[in-house]
Specification:
Structural class: alpha+beta
Shape: globular
Largest sheet: 5 strands, mixed
Strand order of the largest sheet: 1-12-2-6-5
CATH architecture: Alpha-Beta Complex
CATH class: Alpha Beta
Radius of gyration: 18 Å
Number of strands: 12
Order of helices and strands: EEHHHEEEEEHHHEEEEEH
CATH topology: Ribosomal Protein L22, Chain A
Distance between the termini: 33 Å
CATH superfamily: 4'-phosphopantetheinyl transferase domain
Length: 257
């Protein structure tokens, strides 16, 4: 099940609960930025200041603030107290407080948009992209898309190609981020159908559930007219997932300071 409105019930179906918060940075005012930055730890603040362009710095600050706020909304722990470890391929993982259940988090940011996705135990990945980014669609498709995806793109009207390209791209990135292997997992080792939305692997399913399409659930969305979002979750029974995708409650987040 998926909803697109706030549903902050911690008690219902927690084992299968998934929350995605996205934030349109056009809605963030000058007065918000210092508050959002105050939610970060010292190392994050120092890294934010190293970005040369303000839009990159703002995206980093917002992504990490939204991630911390989402963790706090689930648990009540102070937003600035959260700590993270980094996996072998650079994927951040939550260090859960003592006597608290294990949580899995993923975040993404692009020009003008950030997102964070949270669940318990399950592999999860989220990706957002800016629809107006300039890229060599055909060249990139040759490098990272499968024959099936290139055929889909080839049958797409010219005015829709960028949209379909980024829809496929975000889905593939979300899967890659969920499995936590980075680009050591080739993007052309699997492909997506969009109608109905499904993943297919070049290799047949094995004992590794990461390669079993029956254990994956995907969603793609248009949070704004110029952004695309994709979500990937690995779960033994994907039909039981309780997923909420919604705009981050900016007023609530800035009240955490």
């Amino acid at each position: 099940m998926i909803t697109d409105h706030p549903s902050p019930s911690m008690e219902s179906n927690i084992e299968n609960r998934v929350n995605v918060w996205w934030l349109d940075l056009a809605t963030v005012t000058d007065s918000h930025w210092s508050i959002l930055e105050s939610l970060l730890e010292v190392e994050e603040k120092e890294r934010a200041q190293r970005f040369h362009f303000p839009h990159d710095r703002h995206a980093y600050i917002a992504a990490h603030a939204v991630t911390r706020a989402l963790l706090t909304q689930w648990t009540g722990h102070d937003a600035s107290a959260w700590r993270f470890t980094i996996g072998a391929y650079g994927k951040p993982e939550v260090v859960s407080p003592p006597n608290q259940p294990g949580l899995r988090i993923n975040l993404s940011h692009t020009r003008g948009m950030v997102a964070a996705a949270l669940t318990r135990h399950h592999d999860i990945g989220v990706d957002v992209e800016w629809l107006e980014r300039q890229c060599d669609i055909e060249g990139l498709a040759q490098q990272v898309f499968t024959d099936e995806e290139r055929a889909l793109l080839g049958n797409t009207p010219v005015d829709k190609k960028q949209d379909i390209f980024l829809t496929l791209w975000t889905l593939k990135e979300a899967y890659i981020k969920a499995i936590g292997k980075g680009l050591s997992q080739p993007l052309n080792a699997f492909h997506f159908d969009l109608e109905p939305l499904a993943i297919h692997f070049k290799a047949p399913p094995s004992n590794d559930a990461q390669n079993d399409p029956e254990t994956w659930w995907f969603h793609h969305a248009h949070p704004t007219d110029t952004h695309r979002l994709a979500l990937a979750i690995r779960h033994p029974n994907p039909s039981s997932l309780d997923v909420t995708v919604e705009a981050a409650p900016l007023d609530w987040i800035t009240g955490l300071r």
